Amino acid sequence: MKKFSTIALAFAFPLAVSVPALAQEGVKTPPPALSSKCNFLPDAPDKHVVVKGDTLWGISGKFLQNPWCWPEVWGMNREEIRNPHWIYPKQIVYFDRVNGRLRLANPVEESVSGITKLSPQTRSVTNGGLDAISAIPNNLIEPYLSQPLIIEKDEFATAPRIVAAPEGRVYMGKGDKIYVRGDLKNGTSFQVFRPGTALKDPDTQAIIGYEAVYIGAVKLERTAKTEDGVDSFNVVTSKEEMGIGDRLVPIPPTPIINYVPHAPEQEVKARVVAVYGGVSFAGQNNIISINRGASSGIDIGTVLELGRYGKIVPDRTNDKKPIRLPDEMYGQLFIFRVFKNISYGLVMQVTDVVSVGDIVRTPEK
C-alpha cells in the first residue's frame, strides 16, 4: 500500500502544477463542461443568421437539446440574465465547437478580399430595443401582460370603485361615463376588474389570491371638486359591461419583451393551480398559473418542467403490494408574469395535456 501511494503522488504532483504552467505558455484552460441536459444537438448548424420573427427559444432550439439552456451556453451570469443584451435581425449566432459555446457577431463586409468576416461588435440601442428579438412569440403572451391580474386578499378593499353612472344606469359600455370614488394616487388611466375565482394552493387548500376578471379600461375626465364628490371617467374599451362596485387598477407600463429563458437559481417544487380561461386542461401555447412566485425565487423568464406524480399500482409479482411509479415529466413551462405567491406561464413543448394539480419543478440537469 505504501509503495502504491508513493507512485500515485509522484504522478499526481506534476499534473497539478501543469495547469498554471500551460496557462503561462498561452494555452487556454478548457471551459467548464455543460450539464447533460444542455448538450448541443448532433446536427446543430455552424451558424444562424437572425431574421425578423426569430425568438431566443426558437434559435436555441436549432442548437440545443433544451432551449432553456441558452444562458449556460452563452456563459451568462445572473446580472446578464436580468438585463439581457439585445439580439437583432441580421446578426449572426454561430457555434463555437471548440469551446462548446454560442457566440454573437455582426457581419462586416471586407471589400478588398470580397469575403465576409464575423466580427463581434456592440450595437447601440436607439429605439429602446424595440427591434430586438423576443424570448418567445410576442403575440402569445401580450394579451396576458396586463391581465390576468392577481389580487391579494385585502387589495380590492382599498381600490377605487365605480359608485354610479348618469341617469341611474347600472351597466356601462364603451363611450359611457362612470363615477368613481377612492384614492387614484395621481393616476389617470385605469383597468377595470371585478373579483373572480379564488385560487387555492393544491397542497394546502389555502386561498393564495384571487384571479380578477378584466372588464375594460377607463380614462380620467375630471376629478372631484368636493370632499364628498366623485371622479368622472370615460369608458375607453369594454370587454363586457361594467357595473356598480367594479374596481379600478392603474394600467401598468407596456414592457419590452426580451426575457432570457433560464432555469431557476434555487430548487422549485410547485403545482398547477389553474388553467386560464376556466377550463380543466391545457395544451401547447396555453396559459396556466402555478402556486409559487417571487417569494420562491421565481422571476420572469424562468423555465420549469411539467409533469405528474407517478401512479401507485399493485406489484403483481409480490402479493400485489403497492409500488409507486416514477414521476412522468412531459413538457416545459415559460414563466412570463410573476406575483408574490403565484406565477403565470406559457406551456411550451408538451407530449401530454396539462391538468390542474400537475407537478412543476426545476428542470433536471
TrEMBL record:
It comes from the Bacteria. Residues 1-23 form the signal peptide. Keywords: Signal. Residues 46-95 form the LysM domain. InterPro entries: Bact_Kbp (IPR052196), LysM (IPR018392), LysM_dom_sf (IPR036779). This is LysM peptidoglycan-binding domain-containing protein.
